[in-house]
Write a structure and sequence with these properties.
By secondary structure, the protein is of the alpha+beta class. It has one domain: TATA-Binding Protein, CATH 3.30.310. Helix content is 44%, strand content 24%. It has 4 helices and 7 strands. The longest helix is centred in the last third of the chain and has 19 residues. The protein is globular, with a radius of gyration of 15 Å.
């Protein structure tokens, strides 16, 4: 079980519910072999990799095994799955490091993704966009509830 953040591309005026529905349809299409790669995600890949690895430091674990990049921070147990067809961040549950430390790492990573790709982070556990006022505190509380 993990705490997960999704990244969505919303059209102007599109609600998160509609963006989530469109994302689910895209995932179904991808599972049927239809290419759903996001050209903006592909274009930002090198810059995202540099920024996230720089933020984590020398302990960053980078895997480029499939179309995209996985970057893992062993200190915070935060995993960025930056794939051409979708982007997410996850962290496992556990007491160490603290919920504030883990969710801080998630939000710092998310800020890089949002800034460089135009995608918007969405926390499904609390049903809030990461940019919404109070999202950080609510995410910390939700994460702490599960640990």
């Amino acid at each position: 079980m993990s705490y997960d953040i999704l990244f969505l591309r919303r059209e102007p005026g599109q609600s998160f519910d509609d963006a989530l529905e469109a994302d689910e349809e895209r995932q179904i299409a991808a599972s049927e072999g239809i290419s759903c790669e996001d050209p903006l995600v592909i274009a930002a890949a090198d810059e995202v990799r540099r920024a996230v690895v720089e933020m984590i430091g020398p302990d960053a674990k980078v895997d480029t095994g499939r179309p995209g990049i996985d970057i893992y921070d062993p200190a915070t147990r935060v995993l960025l799955e930056y794939h051409w067809e979708g982007v997410s961040i996850s962290t496992t549950f556990g007491p160490d490091p603290s919920p504030v430390t883990r969710i801080s790492a998630v939000f710092r990573t998310a800020e890089i993704i949002e800034r460089l790709t135009g995608l918007e982070g969405y926390d499904r556990q609390i049903e809030m966009a990461l940019r919404e006022p109070g999202a950080f505190a609510t995410s910390v509380a939700a994460y702490g509830y599960f640990t």
